Amino acid sequence: MPIQNSPYQAFAALLSTSGINVSPAELHGLLLGRSAAGAGFEPDSWLADAKELFHSENETSDNVRNALIGLQEMVKGELTSDDMTVVLLLPTDDASLPDRATALGEWCQGFLTGFGLNYRDNALSIEGKEVLQDLAAIAQVQDALEESEDGESDYMEVMEYLRVAPLLLFTETKKPEAPAAAKPSLH
Predict the structure, then answer these.
(1) Residues in contact with 15: Cβ distance below 8 Å, sequence separation at least 6, in sequence order
(2) φ and ψ at 31, to 5 degrees?
(3) How many CB atoms lie within 10 A of CB 2?
(4) How confident is the model at residue 60 (pLDDT cuts 50, 70, 90)?
(5) Cα angle 48, 127, 120; round to 5
(6) Which helix (H) or strand (E) element contains residue 126?
(7) Which one, out of 18, 104, 120, 184, has a CA that is 20 to 30 A from the CA of 25?
């Protein structure tokens, strides 16, 4: 049975044919991490961060550039919509559990990098700090998941957690709108 060309595989092929040795999971994690840290959605700064991850001096191709901007638009839509759901760019269930677990670890690594490069306030809540600690721990356990029902269920639990973690941090780091100056009331 042929493996379907998932968004993950399509992105991996695009990066690979462009000579970029970075997994789509790490790239997506980087984007979500920087977005959750309050970096905003200005394309040029995102493209600069991505290029740094690529360790490339070369100009990125239009295909890669367009894919990166499309990915950012998707993430912006997810983070700013009322759905409160993030779709992770990870291999499909057709991939082996160790491969999916590795991608999960790469995603966490990317997220932590993106968040660390862009977060400036250092005033996270206890929950926010715990989320970052959890992500750091998840990034380390990629070799611990083995092909088994328990392994599958652990993977699914971690994946569900990672779909809400960016939203929690994004909500926390969003700058609250300055309250309107109180107007004296006329009686």
Answers:
(1) 21, 22, 23, 24, 27, 64
(2) -65, -45
(3) 5
(4) confident
(5) 35
(6) helix 126-140
(7) 120
Helix (H), strand (E) at residue 58: none
Which residue type does 148 have?
S
Amino acid at 187: H
pLDDT tens sequence across 82-112: 877 799 999 998 899 889 999 999 999 999 9
Which of helix, strand or coil describes residue 57? Answer: coil
Q: Which domains does the chain have, with CATH numbers?
A: 10-172 (1.20.120.740)
For residue 179, the one-letter residue type is P
Q: Which two tokens stand for residue 159?
A: 């994946």
Torsion angle, CA of 114/116/117/120, rounded to 10 degrees? 130
Which structure tokens are listed for 64?
């890669």
Contacts of 14 (CB under 8 A, 6+ apart): 63, 64, 67
Encoded tokens for 18: 């462009």
Q: What percent of the chain has pLDDT over 70?
A: 88
The overall pTM is greater than 0.70 = yes
d(CA 91, CA 10): 10
Own/partner long-range contacts of 54-59 (Cβ < 8 Å, ≥24 apart): 54/20, 54/21, 54/22, 56/19, 56/20, 58/19
